Amino acid sequence: MGLFGEAKPKRVVVKEYGRDSFLGLINPIMTFLLLGARGANYRSSYQDRLTQKMEDDAAAMARHGYRIVSSREYARPAFGIGYVKVTYELVEPPK
C-alpha cells in the first residue's frame, strides 16, 4: 500500500542474480585460489542454487501478473565473475 492509497505496480522490473560474484574483483589472487581449490563442484552447486532462485522468482512474478521479457547473462569466467539480468514486464495487474 502506498502513502496515499494503493500503489500502482511497476510496469517493468529488472532483477539481477549472481552479482555477489563481483567480490572476486576485490581480491583476484584469492579468487584464483578459491576457484582452484574448490574446482568445478563449487561452481556447479552455485549455479544450481542461482538457477533455483531465478525459477522461484519467475513463478512468484507470474503470480503477480508479470512475464519474462528478456534474460541476459554477463560473465568473465577467468575471474569467476558472472551474473544474470532478467527483465519482467507487467501483463495483467494482480487481482
Feature tags:
28% strand, three-stranded antiparallel beta sheet, 95 residues, alpha+beta
Characterise the protein shown here:
It is a single chain. The protein is of the alpha+beta class. The chain has one helix and three strands, in the order E-H-E-E. The longest helix is centred in the middle third of the chain and has 36 residues, at 28-63. The model has no long low-confidence stretch (mean pLDDT 78).
- Give the end-to-end Cα distance, rounded to a whole number of Å: 14 Å
**Major beta sheet summary:** 3 strands, antiparallel
Rg, please? 17 Å
Shape: elongated
Proportion in β-strands = 25-35%
> Count of helices?
1
Task: Draw up the topology in text.
Layout: E1 12-17, H1 28-63, E2 66-76, E3 81-90
Short description:
The protein is of the alpha+beta class.
